Amino acid sequence: MQVERREKLGLLLGLAGVICFSITLPATRVAVEYFGATFVGLGRTIFAAMIVAFVLLVRKEKRPSLRQFKSLVIVSLGAVLGFPLLTSWAMESLPVSHGAVVVALLPLATTGFAMLRAGEVPSLIFWLYSLIGSLAVITYAVHLGFGQLQFADLALLAAVLILGLSYAEGGKLARELGSWQVIAWALLIAAPLFIVPVFLNVTGEMLHAPLKAWISFLYLAVVSQFLAYVAWYSGMSLGGISRVSQIQYLQPFLMIAISALFLNESVTLFTVLVAAIVVCSVIFGKNAAVMKKGAASVKQ
């Protein structure tokens, strides 16, 4: 019963993280229009790092060990550097709905890296439902006419791969270091490297940016770059990396719904039908067995 409660809590926290992440691309699309990709992609890290530095000092958190530090570098490369910068650059030229479809491949990437880094071995049934979810979003991409890759798509694909590795590494590390501590230390490791490039991209025109641009940037810094990761890594540490990662299949459709509400992008009946298929794949997939290497099959 205790295991079941942990798993349910993990799934709920994972869902909270996904909802927060779903606003990331729409907010990025708004912010880069006024601030540029470099300032948005890297500047949000500096702002978030100032917040977590204060929290770490007040709580007098113990510094990570050398082994944990190496894992934190991997988390930083994906969650703090690679994904924010690459998606900010891609969102300068792509609509949110396009980016959302490519990001939908993230659960597969996360599950693959969970096998390599966290020792999780999903069952055949688990992979079946995961592939159904992937095929649904790929079909959706083809239907929208996104069959041909643009150069910005390659940036998004690279972002997905590096973030998948970061998720798996962070989910594993959260079990021993703590969920919010993982992203907090990852931010502090990366932030000093971003000060110069961010400073070089500051312009006087930014002071005249509209309120929606600043709200979008603050959301990216406080929620997307920190609070959402706290919920996400907590969820993966409690519910299992592979299983909780399946909730990410809902993310592209949440992104599209948000972009329809705030950016006036259209939502079709086909989108709703594909979303229903994806929801079903998540519901059934979360009950499939996931094993740990050298252990019996269990529902984590």
Automatic annotation (TrEMBL):
Q: What is its main location?
A: membrane
Q: Which SUPFAM superfamilies match?
A: Multidrug resistance efflux transporter EmrE
TM annotation in the entry = 9-28, 34-57, 69-90, 96-116, 123-143, 149-168, 180-202, 214-235, 247-263, 269-289
Supply the alphabetized keyword list. Membrane, Transmembrane, Transmembrane helix
The membrane topology noted for this protein in its Swiss-Prot or TrEMBL record is: Multi-pass membrane protein
Name all EamA domain ranges: 9-138, 151-284
Q: Which GO terms describe its cellular component?
A: membrane
Give one Pfam family, short name only: EamA
Q: Give the highest taxon in the source lineage.
A: Bacteria
- Location of the protein in the cell: Endomembrane system
Similarity-based family = Belongs to the EamA transporter family.
Q: What is this protein called?
A: DMT family transporter
Gene source species: Brevibacillus composti
Q: What is the lineage of its organism?
A: Bacteria, Bacillati, Bacillota, Bacilli, Bacillales
